[in-house]
Design brief:
It contains 8 helices and 24 strands. Strands 11-2-1-15-24-23 form a 6-stranded mixed beta sheet. The chain binds flavin-adenine dinucleotide.
Amino acid sequence: MPDERRVVVIGSGPAGAAAARELSQNGIPVTMLEAGSGFRRGLLVRVGGKNLYRRTPPLREEAQHSVSGDPRTQCYVKFALGGLSNNWTGAVPRFAPEDFSEGERLHERFRWPITYSDLAPYYEKVERSLQITADPRDVPQLPGGHVSYPNRIPKDWHDVERAANKYGQGFTTYPLVDGPPNMLVCRGTAFNSYTSIVRPLLSLPNFQLQTGAHALQLEWSPTKRKVDGVLYYSRHTGRIERLGASAFVIACGALGSAKLLHNSVSNDFPHGLGNSEGLLGRFLHDHPREWWSLQMNRPLRFLSPSAYLTRLPYDSSPPLLATSWTLGTASVQDQVRSRFGLKGTAVGVQVLGTMIPSETCVAKPSTVKKDEFGLPALDVCIHYSAAEVENVVRSRQHLMNLMDDAGCRATIGEIVPTLFPGTAAHYGGTARMHTKPEYGVTDAWNRVHGAPNVLVCDAACFTTAAEKNPTLTVMAIAARAATRLTHDLKHA
Ligand SMILES: Cc1cc2nc3c(=O)[nH]c(=O)nc-3n(C[C@H](O)[C@H](O)[C@H](O)COP(=O)(O)OP(=O)(O)OC[C@H]3O[C@@H](n4cnc5c(N)ncnc54)[C@H](O)[C@@H]3O)c2cc1C
C-alpha cells in the first residue's frame, strides 16, 4: 500500500477500531497493528431481548505490568483482536456537558480542551453503529443519545424515579450495547470491536490488519521532526519489523499506550515521547467500584436491563467527586426470573465513583522488571485516597434514603470487596488532553504536544474521569481525532 498518507493504528480495541473506521472509510490507507494473534471466541444466545447464555473468553492480566501502589491493583489487558471488548458489559452512557468543565472549579489543569458540543456529533455517529438499548430521553446529568431499542424502567419503579428527581438526579434505563433481541453469535459480548468494526473494514482495499504485531517503539526522526516509523515484534516471523507511515494512532489502552510512549526514547525525548514535561503516565485514574445487594420490604419488577441512577447535581457536590449507581438483578436465579416479568425483593447495585486525578498516581517504566522483549515493564502505581473511598461508601446510605423516600424501605445485604484499583478496568489519564503542554501530553485533537503526527486515542487522553463508563466517550473522541487527521492528511 505505497501511499505517503498511510496511517498506522496500533490496537484493535474500541478506540483503535473507531479511529481506523473513520480514516479508512474516508480513503486514508490504514495499517492496523494488533499484538493479539487471533480472535478469542465466546458464545452469546439471546432470545426475546434476554440473554439465555453468555460465555466470554477468560479475563487475565496478560501484559505482566508490575504494581507499586495499592498491592491489590489489577491490570486487566487482553492481547486479542477486539481487546477488552471481548469481555466488557457494554454500558455506554454519554458524558454530560458539565463532565468536561466541572474540574475547572478545582484547578486549570482539570480543564478539558474539548466541550460536550465538540463531541456530540461523534457520540451520535458511534451510537448509530452500536445497537443500543436505552431510554432516549435526557435525564439530569445524563444526556440521551441515539437508541436502536427503546426501553423504559418498569412502572413500579416510578416512585424511585420521582424520589431521584427530588434530589436532582435521574433514574432511567442503563444505556447498554445489547444488540438485537435475538442473537446467536460466537462472541461473548453483543458488540466486539473486531467483529463489529475491524473485520468489515477488511473488505476495503485501503485497510490492512497485521495480527501478532506487538508495537515496541515509535521512531523519532530528528531531521523530519516527527515520528516516521514504528518497530514491532512480529509473532509470525519471530523478528522485529519496521513500518513507516505519515501518522500513528496509539490505542493500546491507557496502560499500554503509556508503555509504548515511555519506551519511545530518543535524543529529543530522552524520557519517552510526549514526556518533555514529565507528565506521561501521571494522573492515572480508574473508577473506585463497589458491588452490593439490597433487600426491599416489598417486591418490585426485576430490573433487566439494569436501571441507572445518575450522579448528584454538580452544584451540590464537591468538584470531581461523584458516584453513579446501577441497579439490576442480584443473582443468576433472579436473572432467570426477570425473563418472565416476575417481581422480587433483592437488587444488585454497582457503584462507580470518581478519582480526582493526581500526579502521584502514575504508570511509569519499572526500574527492576523487564517485559518479554527486554524493555522496561510498566509499573502501575495507583491508590484511592480516603476521600475517594469515603465517597463510594457514603453513596450506600444515599441510595437507602432515596428508596425510603420512594416508600420502599431497604436494607443493605452482601458487600463484595472490590474497592481497589483495576476492578472496573476503566484506566485513563496517562496521556491527558490539555491545551497547555505544562498540563497535558496531548492537545484537543489527541496529538502529542511536540510530536503532532502521533495521536493517543484511548482513555489515556481523559483530562478527568466522570463517574460514567468510558468506552463510548473513548470511541467518540477517537472518531473525532481521526476525522481531523483525515482532513489534515488530505489537505497537507
Ligand atoms: C469485565 C469488563 C467489563 C467492562 N464493562 C464496560 C462497560 O460496561 N462499559 C464501558 O464503557 N467499558 C467497560 N469496560 C472497559 C472497556 O472494555 C474498555 O474501556 C475498552 O475496551 C477500552 O478500549 P481501548 O480500545 O482503549 O482498549 P482495549 O480494549 O484494551 O484494546 C487495546 C488493544 O490494543 C492492543 N495492544 C496493546 N498493546 C499493544 C502493542 N504494544 N502493540 C499492538 N497492540 C497492542 C491490545 O491487544 C488490544 O487489542 C469493561 C472492561 C472489562 C474488563
